[in-house]
Amino acid sequence: MRTHTCGELRLTDAGKSATLSGWVVSKREFGPFIFIMLWDRYGQTQVVFEEPLLVEEAKKLSLEDVVRVEGFVRDRGDNRTDKYETGAIEVKAATIELLNPSKPLPYDHRKEAADTLKLKYRYLDIRKSDLLPTLVARSKMAKAVRDYMDANAFVEVETPILGKSTPEGAKEYLVPSRLHHGLFYSLPQSPQSFKQICMIGGIDRYYQMAKCFRDEDLRADRQPEFTQIDIEMSFIAEEDIMTLSEGLIAHLFKVVKGIDIPRPFKRLPFREAMDRYGSDKPDTRYGLEFIDMRENFRNSGFNAFKGAAEDPKKSVKAIVLEGKGAELSKNRIKAMEKDVQGDGAKGLAWVKKEGGALDSPLLKFFSPVELEKLAALIPDGAVMFLVADETRIVQTALGNLRRRLAAEFDLYDKNGFAFLWVTEFPAFEHSEEEGKWVATHHPFTDFDLETARKGDMANVSSRAYDMVINGYEVGGGSIRIHNTAKQAEVFKLLGIEPQEAQEKFGFLLEALDLGAPPHGGIAFGFDRLVMILLGIDNIRSVIAFPKTTSASCLMTGSPSGVSQKQLDELAIKPVG
Hints:
This protein is α+β, with helices and mostly antiparallel strands. The chain has helices at about 50-60, 115-120, 120-130, 130-150, 190-200, 240-255, 270-275, 305-310, 330-340, 370-375, 390-410, 450-455, 485-495, 500-510, 525-535, 565-570; strands at about 15-30, 35-40, 45-50, 65-75, 90-100, 155, 175, 185, 205-215, 225-235, 265-270, 290, 315-320, 350-355, 355-360, 385-390, 420-425, 430, 435-440, 465-470, 470-480, 520-525.
C-alpha cells in the first residue's frame, strides 16, 4: 500500500519513485495543476497533479478522503518550505486511487468545538488534534517503565480483572455471574490482594501496568477506569521502595523531557504537610506557607479569633501574599471570602499593609500589641488572609485559597517541577457515616500497634507514603502487615468480625499464615504521570477513549440497556 510514510521523504530521495497512502487534508488549484497535502501520523507530503486526466481525478477528491498515490519525488526548488519536515520535496503523481471517500466532518477541527462533540467523534479528535502525538508519547513512557522495571529484576505478572468484592474505599464496579445466579465478580480497584500473594509465592519483585476501576465522582485528574504502575517487593523497607521509585521517575523524566531531576526527593510527614500547607499533596513550587496565629490571638478582643485560639480542636492560621496587596480590591476579596465559605469556613479576615500602615475592617478589635505583631508579620505591599475555625476546616479552606492565589498571581514556574514524599499518614480515620474508625488507606497497611492498643486511634501513624509532583499525588503505597496475628488484631480494631474477615479476605489470611515475607509496595497513576510530564491539565487528554464526568462514553453510548434475554440469563430484574 505504500513505500514511504507521509513524513519520511527528504531531498536525498529526489528522483526516486514513491507510493504514499493517507488522508487528503488540503487541496488547492494553481493554474492547470492541483496540489493536495497527504497526511498520515508520521507527517505530510505535498502531491502535485499535472497530467490532465489525473487533474480531473484530483478535482473529485474531498477533504479527508483516503487515497493512494504513486509518483516520483522531486525537488521543490525555490518553493521549499521549512514549515514541515518534507517541505523540500513534493511527489509528482503518476497514478491515484481513491481508497475510501469521506463525508464532510461533523465539526471543523480548526475552530473551537464542544467537548461533547469531540468525545462523540473521538477518532476524529485523535486524527485532527494533538491527541495522537500525546498517545505516541504515552506509548513511549509505557515502554520506558517496562525497560526500567526489567533492568531492576522485576517480573511482570497479570492479575485477574474478575475478582472478589473487598472493601478498599471507593465504590466498586460489580459484574453479575451468569453461571452463579445472585453472585458477583468485582472489577479491581487495585490488584492489592493478588500482589501480596505474589510475594508469598516467592515473586519478590512484581509489577504490572494494571487496569483499575473505581466507581467514584470524577474530576479533571480522575477517570472511572485508569492504569496503575503497580509495584510490590519482598524483604524491603520504606527506603528501598522510595529509592526505586525515585529512580523510575528520574528515568521517565530523562526519556520524555531529557532532563535530570534532583534526588533524593524532599520528605514531609503528613501532619506537618497539613499544618504548613493544608494539604496532604502540597505544591511546593511556591511558598504561601501557613502562619500559626494561635498565640497572637489567645487574649484577643476579637472573640472569633480568641475562641479559636483557646480551643484545642480549632486553629487560627494565616497566609501572606507579598507584593500584591494593591491589586486586590475589596470586591475581589469578597469573592475570595465566598470561596472560603464554600469550603466550610465561617469567614475570611484580611489585613493589608501599604506605606507602613495597616488596613482592615478588623483593626478596631485588635490591641496595640496585636497590631504590632501583625505589622511585623506583613511586609509592605502585602496582604494577610486569616481563617479561624475547626482545624480541619481551616486547613481545607486556607489550603484551597493558597492554591487559587498561586494560580491567579503566577507564583510558580509552570515549566518547573517540585518532588515530594509525604509520609507517616494516619493509620485510621473516623467515619461519621459508619460511626466507627476505618483504615485510611486499606486494612493491610502496617502501623504502630501499641499506640492503637491504648485507644489513641487518631494519633496512630502508618507506614504509608505518597509521592507528590506539583501538587498532584502521583503514587502511593505502604509497608504491608505480613503477620496473621497482627492482621487479625487490626480487623478487630476496625470492628470487622472474624466471620466477615474470613468471607472477604479468607484467601489472603490463609496465605499470610503460610510463610509470608515482609513486603510492601507502591502504585503510580500512569495516566496522571503522563499528564504531568506532557504539561496537560486534563486527564481525558492523555487517554485514548475516556469517559465524561458522568462516567459515560459518548462515542459508543455506554452505559446502555441490554436485552431481556441477557437479563434473564443473569437472573436480574431491573428496579426503577
